[in-house]
Write a structure and sequence with these properties.
three-stranded parallel β-sheet, Alpha-Beta Plaits, alpha/beta, 42% helix, 16 helices, 453 residues, 3-methyladenine DNA Glycosylase II, Chain A, domain 3
Length: 453
């Protein structure tokens, strides 16, 4: 099943049930039951927002470890453009060598694959009139569309992410130049975010990823920083898969649309993305040709697994790009051949994940929706989160699904307790009293009289 793996996990023993996560989850995928957070897998898009806001560090990313590279005869590190923005006063060559010194045989830049994707986007825009088109580079955004904006699924451009394209190009080169088979090559992506980890483990629209595993940027950062001072700035790189400025700029917001034509809109931050997708769903963007949407603030430089301030990382990345060729030296015939052959495209159609529907049966779903609307009108509408659901509407839906009860709302519970207390008081007066209980009732009546006065 496609969404059976999620890299974002809960450490239950660390969770204090504080409700910070439920208030910040963009797909309302988290509830707090019995004092512990619970993630609804069908709604999770691995954006990592819960990791950012959890004060107790109860959310973590399940990710591969660096030591796994020793399981393969030949290993390749794929470096995202955002990775180069993590290191102060370091050249591209130094960062490459620092990663290679960790035990990799080859280092390749994901920006190189981004250049191929940029070419494919141009071709697709020329051949397909549907507008606006939505970028498929950020797996969090693709899953967000599937889960929350399923009516926009057809607008997502059906192209592989740059990291997947780069992995394929690396494997192709190694097979041609060194005669290495796929099973002998371990391709490891140094990832800035948990969503890319999930996209590798369970690809969105392909049977199997060409990437072996993903390693957190945070894990390798310290080791590389300790090596940089001893690496010459002009160290020679041993790979042809090097990106120009066009490819490297994909690491920050606006880089993807930099070389595209038409009306292009670049949006970062998952809540801003939701706003723009809501406008698109209502038909408010008729003049827009292309949407570059990135879940993390600032783009990939702001991912949950990076180490540096995204504004600083962005500035460093742009400074590095000033020393690179402005554009790639494309063999247009080769890229067009790959495009026409389908090398750049998803292997499977993108499926809607209509998990927000109340039930698979239409009549049952309509009945539950009506029930939800009735329940929601009875709730206070404060969206306080004290019930463990992010909003009153979510609680109403949970109640309609049988996952919660009215008394989970503290205002309903307080009212219910008041009703029970009043009933008990009336019953207490009706039950034949003992001497002791009559004295208690008399005292309570006297107290009520004093309050009335």
């Amino acid at each position: 099943m496609e969404n059976s793996f999620h890299s974002v996990r809960l450490l239950e023993e660390e969770c204090k049930g504080c409700t910070n996560c439920i208030k910040h989850c963009p797909t309302e995928a988290i509830r707090v039951y019995q004092g512990k957070a619970r993630i609804i897998n069908e709604l999770c898009i691995d954006c990592g927002e819960c990791i950012r806001v959890c004060p107790n560090y109860a959310k973590q990313t399940i990710i591969d470890e660096l030591k796994e590279i020793h399981e393969y005869p030949y290993t390749v590190a794929l470096l995202a453009p955002s990775f180069f923005g993590q290191f102060p006063n370091a050249t591209v060559n130094q960062v490459h060598q620092g990663v290679k010194d960790l035990g990799f045989n080859l280092v390749a830049q994901v920006g190189y694959g981004a250049e191929h994707v940029n070419f494919a986007i141009r071709q697709w825009m020329q051949e397909n009139p549907l507008r606006p088109l939505i970028s498929s580079a950020c797996p969090t955004i693709v899953r967000l569309v599937q889960v929350r904006f399923d009516e926009l699924v057809d607008h997502v451009i059906p192209l592989e992410a740059p990291v997947e394209i780069t992995a394929g190009l690396v494997r192709e080169q190694l097979a041609k130049e060194k005669g290495l088979s796929d099973k002998d090559v371990g391709v490891f992506f140094i990832s800035p975010c948990p969503a890319k980890v999930s996209a590798i483990k369970i690809p969105i629209a392909r049977g199997q990823s060409q990437i072996t595993a993903a390693i957190s940027m945070r894990e390798v950062y310290g080791a590389i920083m300790s090596k940089l001072a001893t690496i010459p700035k002009d160290v020679v790189l041993e790979t042809d898969l090097l990106a120009s400025a066009l490819g490297m700029l994909w690491g920050r917001r606006g880089g993807e649309v930099y070389a595209l034509e038409g009306t292009r809109v670049s949006v970062d931050g998952v809540y801003n993305v939701i706003n723009i997708l809501e406008d698109m769903a209502m038909g408010k963007l008729p003049e827009v040709d292309y949407l570059e949407l990135q879940a993390c603030p600032g783009g990939c430089v702001g991912g949950p697994l990076v180490t540096q301030n995204p504004f600083i990382a962005k500035a460093r990345l742009e400074a590095l790009c000033n020393g690179l060729p402005a554009a790639p030296k494309w063999d247009r015939d080769d890229l067009l051949y790959r495009y026409q052959k389908g090398d750049y495209f998803w292997k499977l159609p993108l499926q809607s994940k209509a998990v927000l529907s109340m039930d698979g049966d239409i009549s049952t779903a309509l009945s539950m929706i009506k029930q939800r609307e009735i329940i929601e009108k009875e709730l206070p509408g404060l969206d306080c989160g004290a019930c463990g659901s992010p909003t009153c509407q979510c609680l109403a839906e949970d109640i309609a699904r049988g996952m919660a009860s009215n008394n989970d709302c503290i205002f309903h519970l307080r009212q219910a307790v008041q009703y029970v207390a009043a009933d008990l008081w009336r019953l207490a007066k009706q039950v034949p009293p003992t001497i002791a209980s009559q004295q208690v009732l008399n005292a309570m009546d006297e107290e009520d009289d004093n309050e009335d006065k």
